[in-house]
C-alpha cells in the first residue's frame, strides 16, 4: 500500500504540474521560457483555486438546503494573509505542489514570496475574523464572511530616519487570482436625502426614504478551504460602483464631468480601509462604508431566504449574523428597515426576528474606542435609519422606566442616544439591545464588560452575556509558518493535532523531560532564529546573534500596549552596561514591529524612540553586542510568518484591563515562546493552561489599576523614588539617543512624568524584576526548553476551532463537525 500511496502522489504531482502549465498558457498567455516568477505564482494560484472550486460550487449548492442555518460573519475587516501557502496546506497538496514546481525548475518559496497579502484589516480583530473563517470551513459550518473589498488595505510602513512613513497599499496592482467577481450579484444602497410618510393602499402608515444618491455593491467571492475535508467556505466582499443609471441628464447637457462625478463618488465608498484601530474620528465616509456593506449583506440574506423558498418568519432559523464589534451594528436598524419598509412586516414581529438573528461581540473596553456617531451626521447620511433607531430607543426606554420606576439616571445611561454635549448615537447600546447574545473575547474581558461598560444591560438581562475566548488557527500559525516544529511534533504524536489541537497536542507532554527531544526542540528554535537573523540582516541591515535571547513585541503600536515600558527597560540595561554593571545581563535581541495609526502622534514618537535607542545601542562599542534593538518594518501577516516562530520571549505587557484578549500572545506561545505578561486579556487563561511556573507574570491587576488611578496617581513621585527608572528616563530626555537633541522626545517624557495614563512607571519595577527572572531562567537552556515544550503542549485550548465550536454551541445553535 506504501507504493500505492507513492504512485498516487506521483500522479498528483503530474496533475498539478499540467494544471500550472495550462494556467500559465491560458490565463497568463506566457510560455515557461518567458514566464516571470510572478507569472508562476499566478499559475500556481489558479491551479490551487481550481481544486477548491468544485467544493465551492457544491457548498454553495448545499446552502440552498433550507434546514441548515447559515452563519453570516459581519466584519469591516478580514486580515486574510497570503492565500497560496494556506490553500496548499488545507488542500493537502503542499508536497506535490513543491515537487511539481521544482520539476519546472522553480523554488516554491520564491513563488510564495510573490504574493502580495490582502491587508484588509488593522490587526487583532481583522485577523480573528480570518482565523474564524478557516475554522468554520474546517468544522463544516455553513458560513459566509461578509465585508468590504477595499481597493487599498492597511498602509505599507517604511522607516525613514527612524520615523514611520506610510505608503498606499496597492494590493490589487498585479491582479487577484483568488476572487471571483459576481457582477449579477449586486444590490442598491441608499444614502442621504430625506424621508416622506404616506398611506398605502391598505390604509397603513408607511415611510419612504428618498435618498440623495444611490450606490451599487458588487459581490466578490473568495473561496476559503477547510482543512483536508473537501469543504470550501465563502468570503464575500462588496465593492462599490455607480448605479446603472448613467447621469443622462448631465450627459445631455454636455456636462461630461458632472456625469462622471457620480461614478467617482460611488467608487469612493470601498476605496480605502481606515487605519485606526482604537479611536474613531466619526467620519462620514466611514459610516457610509459600514452601512454600505451591511445593507448589501442583509439584502443578500433576504435573497438567499427567497432562493431557499422560506418565509420571512423563518429568517432566524435560516440565518444568524455575528457582529464583529460595533462596526456592522447598523445592521440592527437596517434589518428593521428591510422588514418594515421593504417587506411590510409589523414592528413587533420585525423586532422579534431581528433580536433572534443578531449576536454581538465586543472587542474593547477603552472608552475612546466605543463607536459614537454625531446625531447631525447620522441624520444626514442615514435619515431613515435614525428614525428607526429613535423608535427602537423609545420602546426600549419604556421597558426600562417600567422596570426601574423613577430611575431617570439609569434611563440616561442606557439610552442609545447620548444626550450629553454634542448628541450622539451609541453603537454599542444599539448592538446590545438588538442582539440575543453578547460576548467578550476572554474571561477577564467578559467579566469587566458585565461589571463596567455594559453593567446596566447585564443587570437587565444577565442570561444573554457569554464569554468566548479568542483562538487562532493552527493550520496557518503552526503548520504553514513553522514547518520544522510541525515535523518534529508530527513524528512524535502523529498529525491529528492539526485539527484536534484541544485534545491531541497535550501528548507532547511526555517528551518534555526527554533529552533527545529537548535537543531536537532546541535545534528547531535555533534554526528559526537563524532564519530570522538573516532576514533582519537583509531588511534592516543589523547583525543579530541567534544565540542571544530573542525578545519580541509585535502588535499595533499603542500606549495601552506599552511598547515604551519595554523601551524603558532597554534604556535601563544600556545604562547598566555604560556603568559596567553587566552582571546578570543575558545577551538579548529586542525585536519590535507594528504600525502606528497615521494620526497617532505619540505612537509614531514611540517608533522613533525605538529606532533611536536601537541606533545608539547597536553602534556603541561598549555594548559589544550584549544587547541589540531592532525595529522590523511593515509588520503584517506575511512577515509574521518569520517572526513568531523565532521568539524565545513574547511580550504581552498591556496595562491590566485594557487588552481585551490579544491573539499574538497565542501565536507566540503555540510556537514555543515563553510569555512575559500582565494579568490581562487571554494572558491569564494562557497562564492557567501552561502553568504559572512556565509563565513570567508581573504587574498590577485590573482592580489595582482602577484603584491607583482613583487614589490620585502621581507618576513623578515614582520617577523620583526609583533610581534605575529615573536614569532611564533622564537618558532619553538628555538626548543620549538623539544626538544631543533634547526636544524630540520631550512630549514623550512629559506625558509619562505628568500623566502616564497607562501606568508605565507604576509597573516598571515589577517588569524589570520579572525580566531579570527571565534572564536567569534563560541561562539554563535545558530548563528553558522544557518550559517551551510544556507551553506548546498545553496551548490546545487556543485553537480557533475551540472558539468557533463555542460560538456554534452557545450562540448560533448550529451543528459542527
Ligand atoms: C472604530 C474603529 C476606529 C476601529 C477599527 C478597528 C476600532 C477598533 C478596531 C480594531 C480593534 C481590535 O483589533 N481589537 C482587538 O481585537 C482582538 C480580537 O478580539 C483582541 O484580541 C484585542 O485585544 C483587541 O484589541
Describe, in plain words, how this protein is organized in 3D.
It contains 34 helices and 22 strands. It is of the alpha/beta class. The chain folds into 3 domains: 1-65 and 83-116, no CATH class; 67-81 and 118-469 and 805-812, Glycogen Phosphorylase B (Rossmann fold), CATH 3.40.50.2000; 479-798, Rossmann fold (3-Layer(aba) Sandwich). The chain has a 9-stranded mixed sheet, with helices on both faces. Strands 19-18-17-20-21-22 form a 6-stranded parallel sheet, sandwiched between helices. β3 (156-160) and β4 form a beta hairpin. α13 (375-381) crosses α14 and α29 crosses α30. It is globular and about 90 Å long. The chain starts with a helix and ends in a 5-residue tail after the last helix. Ligand 26Y is lined by residues 122-125, 128, 276-278, 280, 363-364, 369, 371, 441, 470, 659-663, 681. It holds the Pfam family Phosphorylase. Keywords: Carbohydrate metabolism, Glycosyltransferase, Pyridoxal phosphate, Transferase.
Mean pLDDT equals: 96
Beta strand count? 22
Bound molecules: ligand 26Y
Give Rg in angstroms: 27 Å
What is the CA-CA span between the terminal residues? 29 Å
What is the class of the largest domain in the CATH system? Answer: Alpha Beta
Largest sheet: 9 strands, mixed
CATH homologous superfamily heading of the largest domain: Glycogen Phosphorylase B
Q: Count of DSSP helices?
A: 34
Question: Which strands sit side by side, in order, in the main sheet?
Answer: 5-8-9-2-1-10-11-15-16
Fill in the CATH topology of the largest domain: Rossmann fold
The CATH architecture name of the largest domain reads 3-Layer(aba) Sandwich
Percent of sequence in beta strands: 5-15%
Shape: globular
Are there runs of 5+ residues with pLDDT below 50, and where? none
Q: How helix-rich are the residues, as a percent range?
A: 40-55%
Total domain count: 3
Q: For this entry, what is the oligomeric state of its chains? A: single chain
Structural class designation: alpha/beta
